[in-house]
Amino acid sequence: MRIYPAIDIKNGKCVRLRQGNFDDMTVYNDNPVEVAKEWIKNGASYIHLVDLDGAREGSGVNSDIIKEIANLSDVPVQTGGGIRTIEDIENKLALGVRRVILGTVAVKNPEIVKEAVEKFGDAIAVGIDAKNGMVAVSGWEEVSEVSAVDLCVKMRDYGLKTIIYTDISKDGMMGGPNIEATKEIVDATGIDIIASGGVSGMNDLENVDKINAHGAIIGKALYTGAINLKEAVDRFERG
């Protein structure tokens, strides 16, 4: 299982939200690049970057920071937030990121995902964020009428290989991910599912590993010291 340390960027700083709420934000570091260097030093094999400004405003506000992190080392970077068009994808890939995460557009304009997968292949992932089993969009401020499982299956049928699944009610709450819902997605699709939201300790990583998820994104637990990245990488990637 791959461990993905998360760096969420807002106003050029490294932050964490609780349950996706922009009014409930903690700034952990004024310099996301320094955070990325720390994760690389501690054995990260992939970095998960989210442009929260982009997610809300629909444009890549923090491109310079993303480019700098993507070019720090050989460690690949995946990024999402406000990526709505083929041109947006091309712009992100031009920064040096390995994988681009599409979110809202997968619900509102799924044909873009189909086109993107045909054009860019494995460089495309889709982030599916759910609340009570229904997909949330636009920086989690709007819940759609689309079921998360149905959308995941549809994305797989388009040839997509990677989905990042987040249960919003768990995100930033340190209460453990929604294992049951994540397992349902893993079993229904048979593709690489990365669990996100709520990972609070090594036991949560064990639970994610048991359901055959491809990976786990860790955010707040790294910043509070609840999980040591080096230990997690040694145990789940190299163990």
Q: Structural class of the secondary elements? A: alpha/beta
Mean pLDDT: 93
Could you give the order of strands across the largest sheet? 1-4-5-6-7-10-11-12
Strand content: 25-35%
Poorly predicted spans: none
Q: How many beta-strand runs?
A: 12
- Rg result: 16 Å
Second CATH tier, the architecture:
Alpha-Beta Barrel
Largest sheet entry: 8 strands, parallel, barrel
What's the short story on this structure?
With 239 residues, the chain is α/β, with parallel strands linked by helices. It has helices spanning 32-41, 52-57, 63-70, 86-94, 104-108, 110-120, 148-157, 179-189, 202-210, 220-223, 229-236, and strands at residues 2-10, 13-18, 21-29, 47-51, 77-80, 99-102, 124-131, 134-137, 142-147, 162-167, 192-196, 215-218. Strand 5, helix 4 and strand 6 (99-102) form a beta-alpha-beta unit.
How would you characterize this protein structure?
This protein has helices at 32-41, 52-57, 63-70, 86-94, 104-108, 110-120, 148-157, 179-189, 202-210, 220-223, 229-236; strands at 2-10, 13-18, 21-29, 47-51, 77-80, 99-102, 124-131, 134-137, 142-147, 162-167, 192-196, 215-218. The mean pLDDT is 93. The termini are close together. It has one domain (2-236): Aldolase class I (TIM Barrel, Alpha-Beta Barrel), CATH 3.20.20.70. A hairpin with a 2-residue loop joins strand 2 and strand 3 (21-29). The protein is an alpha/beta fold and 239 residues long. Helices cover 38% and strands 29% of the residues. An eight-stranded parallel β-barrel has the order 1-4-5-6-7-10-11-12, surrounded by eight helices.
